[in-house]
Amino acid sequence: MVWTPLHAKIHRTIRSRHLFERNQRLLIAVSGGQDSLCLIKLLLDLQSKWGWNLGIAHCDHRWRSDSEANAHHVENLAKTWDTSFYLETANESINSEAAARDWRYQALSAIAKANNYQYIVTGHTASDRAETLLYNLIRGTGADGLQALTWQRSLTTGIMLVRPLLEVTRIQTEQFCQEFNLPIWEDSTNQDLQYARNRIRQELLPYLRENFNPQVESALAQTAELLQAEVEYLEKAAQQLRQKALGIGDEEDSLTSLVPLRLNRRVLQKAPLALQRRAMRQVLQQMLTDAPSFEHIEKLTALIIAPNRSQTDPFPGGAIAQVEGDWIYLK
Q1: 221-268: per-residue pLDDT in tens?
Q2: Across the chain, which distance is largest between two alpha carbons, in Å?
Q3: Does residue 116 come out as left (phi exceeding 0), alpha (psi in the -120 to 50 range) or beta?
Q4: Phi-psi region of 181 (alpha: psi -120 to 50; beta: other; left: phi over 0)
Q5: pLDDT confidence of 12, banded at 50, 70, 90?
Q6: pLDDT tens across 260-294, in order?
Q7: Quick one: average pLDDT of 177-189?
Q8: I need a labelling partner for 56 at 20 to 30 A (CA). Which of 31, 46, 217, 322 fits?
Q9: How far apart are the C-alpha atoms of 183 and 73, rounded to whole Å?
Q10: Which of 115-129, 206-220, 262-276, 285-299 has the least mean pLDDT?
Q11: Residue 68 and residue 28: Cα distance in Å, rounded?
Q12: Any idea of the CA torsion for 299, 301, 307, 311, to the nearest 10 degrees?
C-alpha cells in the first residue's frame, strides 16, 4: 500500500477527533463520484490499522437515465475490494435535493440498523462545507446554518453519521483519485445549473477563488469549524436558561413539549438577547411540528419585556403566548 500525506492526515483526524473506535463496523456511502471513491480507498487502506469491518452502500434516486448503471459500477467496485455491498433504490424518481437527502439518510439508516453498522460515513469535504455556508448565508440564516455539516451527529439510536473529509477539498480528492487511477463515475446532474448548489460550485466559488482568495474553500470551511464550537456552547447555555425559566431539570426536559407551559420573564430578562432568542427557539422547536421561523422566534422573544397582557397571534398549530405578570404562558 502506498502511504500518502492524505492517508496520514485522515488517520490523524480520525484519532484526534475520536471519529471512530477500533474494531467497529462502518457503512460507507459511495455514490461513485470522486469524493466517495477517495473516502472508501482511504478507509480500506487504513482498515488494517483500525480493525474495522467495512461495508459499501449505494442509494439510487432514479433521477438519471444512467442511475442503474451507476449502481452496478459501485457494486463491481465493492466486489473488486471484497467488501459487502448494499443497494437501496427509490420506489419513484426523487427530483428535489431536500427530498433526496432525507430519503438517502433514511435508507442508509435502515441498511445500517439491519446489518449492525454503528457508523454511516459520507465523503463530504471542505468544499461541501464552503458551499453549504454560502448557500445558507444567501438564503438567510444564523450561526447554526453557517456551521452546517458537522464532523459527526447522531442519525438514530446507536448510529452515528461521520464525515472524515471535512478538511479535504474537492481538488485534493480529485488528485487522490487520479494518483490511484480510481474509476470516477461522473454525475451529469452536478453540471445542471438549475440547482443553486451547482451554481455556487460551478460559478460562484471559482469567481471567489480567482478574484478574492485562492484558498476560499478552506477559509470558509475553517469559519464553519469555528462557528460549530460556538454554536455548541451557545445551545448548551440556552438550554440551561430555558430550563431555569421553566423551573425544570434535565430529567423533566422531555415534558416541556406539552402545552400549556410557562416561562419566568425575570429569569429571561437577565440573559443576553442571543441566549433569549436561542431559548425561545428551543421552546418553539418542542411545540411546533416544523422548524420555527425567525418571525416566530422574534415575536415570542419580544414578550420577555412586553407590557402585561400582551400576547402573540397564533403559532402554527394554534398555540398562543401571553404575558401575565412575571410569566409568559403558552397555551
Answers
A1: 999 999 999 999 999 999 999 999 999 876 666 655 566 889 999 999
A2: 72
A3: left
A4: left
A5: very high
A6: 889 999 999 999 999 999 999 999 998 888 889 99
A7: 89
A8: 217
A9: 9
A10: 285-299
A11: 19
A12: 40
Length of the chain: 331
Distance separating alpha carbons of residues 221 and 225, to the nearest angstrom: 6
Q: Under a CB-based contact definition with an 8 Å cutoff, are residues 70 and 99 in contact?
A: no
Instruction: Assign 92 a pLDDT band (cuts: 50, 70, 90).
Output: confident
pLDDT level of residue 195 (50, 70, 90 thresholds): confident
- Please give the torsion angle defined by the CA atoms of residues 236, 241, 242 and 247, in that order, rounded to the nearest 10 degrees: 130
3 state SS for the chain: CCCCHHHHHHHHHHHHCCCCCCCCEEEEECCCCHHHHHHHHHHHHHHHHHCCEEEEEEEECCCCCCHHHHHHHHHHHHHHCCCEEEEEECCCCCCCHHHHHHHHHHHHHHHHHHCCCCEEECCCCHHHHHHHHHHHHHHCCCHHHHCCCCCEEEEECCEEEECCCCCCCHHHHHHHHHHCCCCCCCCHHHHCCCCHHHHHHHHHHHHHHHHCCCCHHHHHHHHHHHHHHHHHHHHHHHHHHHHHHHCCCHHHHHHHHCCCEEEEHHHHHCCCHHHHHHHHHHHHHHHCCCCCCHHHHHHHHHHHCCCCCCECCCCCCCCCEEEECCEEEEC
Q: How confident is the model at residue 29 (pLDDT cuts 50, 70, 90)?
A: very high
Measured CA to CA, the distance from residue 10 to residue 39 in angstroms comes to 9
State the Cα–Cα distance between residues 147 and 176, nearest whole angstrom: 26
Taking the model in full, what pTM does it have? 0.85
